[in-house]
Amino acid sequence: MSQSMLALNNFAAAGMSALDPVERSLLERRSRTFGSGVPLFYARPLNFVRAEGVWMFDHEGRRYLDAYNNVPSVGHCHPHVVAAIARQAAQLNTHTRYLSDVVSSYAERLLGYFAAPLSRVLFTSSGTESVDLALRMAQYQTGGTGLVVTRFAYHGHSMAVAQITPAFGSGVALGAHVRTVAAPDGFRGTGPVAENFAAAVQAAIDDLERHGIGFAALVTDTLFTSDGVFADPAGFLRPAVDAVHRAGGLYVADEVQPGFGRTGSGMWGYSRHGIVPDIVVMGKPMGNGMPIAAVVTRAEILESLAAHTGYFNTFGGNTVCCAAAAAVLDVIEQESLIARAARVGGVLRSGVAALQARYPVIGDVRGAGLYLGVEIVAAADGQSPDTAAALRIVNGLRERQILISTCGAEGNVLKIRPPLQFSEENAAQLLEEIESLLRQG
Amino acid sequence: MSQSMLALNNFAAAGMSALDPVERSLLERRSRTFGSGVPLFYARPLNFVRAEGVWMFDHEGRRYLDAYNNVPSVGHCHPHVVAAIARQAAQLNTHTRYLSDVVSSYAERLLGYFAAPLSRVLFTSSGTESVDLALRMAQYQTGGTGLVVTRFAYHGHSMAVAQITPAFGSGVALGAHVRTVAAPDGFRGTGPVAENFAAAVQAAIDDLERHGIGFAALVTDTLFTSDGVFADPAGFLRPAVDAVHRAGGLYVADEVQPGFGRTGSGMWGYSRHGIVPDIVVMGKPMGNGMPIAAVVTRAEILESLAAHTGYFNTFGGNTVCCAAAAAVLDVIEQESLIARAARVGGVLRSGVAALQARYPVIGDVRGAGLYLGVEIVAAADGQSPDTAAALRIVNGLRERQILISTCGAEGNVLKIRPPLQFSEENAAQLLEEIESLLRQG
Predict the structure, then answer these.
(1) ipTM of the complex
(2) Which position among A346, A371, B195, B411 has the lowest Cβ density within 10 Å, counted as fewest Cβ atoms?
(3) Which domains does chain A have, with CATH numbers?
(4) What is the pTM assigned to this prediction?
């Protein structure tokens, strides 16, 4: 089997001896209910009992700096969001088969972050449901089924979406209607990123057509986070999207990771590339932990779905999740979190770049705003992925009470993705502890 | 196109003139954001702004008796559940990659409602995600892909699950690996329900095998609610499940509708049939509106999934949804809601049966606990579905401020499915208004 992203930074039985009785008991109870299939972070897992802003607390009251979790994007347990949830849960929690000002107001507000012709939204309960729905729309709109994704993409876990998620590894078969292309990797790749990526996408489309499979869509994360975080040069997506459109296909922008301001340059990752997707899917940070996700698209794409079938999702767009999501937008705006992501992300990035100059195990630092990928490589050649060293840093930071993880096909890229309330002071602490670990070698 | 369940009891443009300015404005805003594909209940839609127990209130303060909504199963905005949500949202909302007493305690408690060998659970965010995951498990466990469902079944809206959901109508293609069988209809069917159903399932399995499609699973709602509510004689599922097992397949019990006490005879609909499913999926009422759902199965079925891939679901089993779901179990137990469903459901059913004796448009009344199906038929023959008459009753009750809907392939079966706090007094009010409408003819 090839590497699975579910195996990155996972608990290993060897870590058992380091657990205290509380953790050990929880681990055993977990195995007896979840079995062995649900991944658990860290060689020595963590048990959190409360959280606030960028801090998480375990059962001993130990405080951890969260530089990993992007779902509580405006900060763990943000009081404005918590109040909105509590208020709406006490008033009404219902579905979209009734009229609702709460739901329509949120839909209008969310669409306000998109330019024409992206003017329609459907709500779901997860990024997976949103990607799955986007695939149905793309099939109905184009009449094709062929899909192109990057080589270590993660898009979700439903049966249809798992077929376009190579990050699950070889245990989960890709669909016969799916082609993968190399991620737009400016670090290991040679030649111009934009042209290379467009050529790879075109070749994949040609191959689909050669097999009699009509092309439906290119689906990518606009930050390529599972592949290892590829952000630059901004604009590189444009030629590939042009090729997709020339072939009569759609471009589906997966904004589950980059969306809601994380890139520090607008609400959506795609805007860095000067493109307009045909379909945009979003999820994780949308409700700061409440299960809400969405698909935004053009009116005619939605109507081509509606011509085949209506769409109703029991929990999708329920009033409580919409109230939470509206509060998230309040906080993003009131606390200027997009500007903050740019500012603090910049501090973090230049800090890592300064470390890179002194520690050759840092092969590359890249990303946008508060989403950073840091390549850990063999010092000898500055290129070969060093997964073990990356894991040592992740687990070392865990012992120093800082949370990050890894990504990329080789699992050697540090994934730094804190709540957007992360401060310059938090960034300094993270940089200091990384340096301390690098000094130890 | 064949009838779609999404078209049952829907808004029709003709109802527009009856709307007040508030409703009209909401309807227009909804169309501009959702397009035309999201179904809206009633010829004259409703706008709810708050709810409590079995009551929902519109913007004019008009009070509606809810005899329809099964998601807020322990009552709209139940204070015990609302308090649990508010408390946990303020404390910690995180995912299952950390240890958590909140999550493990709920998992243990939920599994306590199942007998061995059903001892493992995975959490998801919707019934759709749960059915989709069950299909993946069934494929990995059996090596087959063939699935058997009933003729107007609804199981969910992901691409894979839509392929086993004939209730979407002919606009959505069933999978080539899917066979449908007539629902176990003791009203229109002839001969013994159990034997007929088992024979139909066996024939479908044989047909799959004849086409070289290995049989994986029979998937049914244990109350056949979308098909029109078929509950009796209790035990009729057993021969079909035996046939499934003889063929090496799995039986997947979809408890999204009947689960969590609604049938009035235990937590799960399947227990009325004296069977043990291989996989059980549940959703809607689990968190009283919070998006949480689950798959319960045997250890070896979960491990056969784990042998191919881990399972991680970002929102699935988050601490806030688990806290809400635990509070739902508290209420079911503390308020003896299962016994109440049996008692009040019995009152309702005998009340409708009494009406049936006097009004021949009631062809049949059936169900279990607080899930009733009432066949509206042509008085002339007592058999032919009268969809228009059923819709007149649903819309007539809406004008009398009572909520129900319809189900069944012909949309002529009244679907009565109130929150479990429904009282004898509520039942009397519903019966009185139904009779008043029947008197008018």
Answers:
(1) 0.97
(2) B195
(3) 5-74+336-440 (3.90.1150.10), 79-334 (3.40.640.10)
(4) 0.98
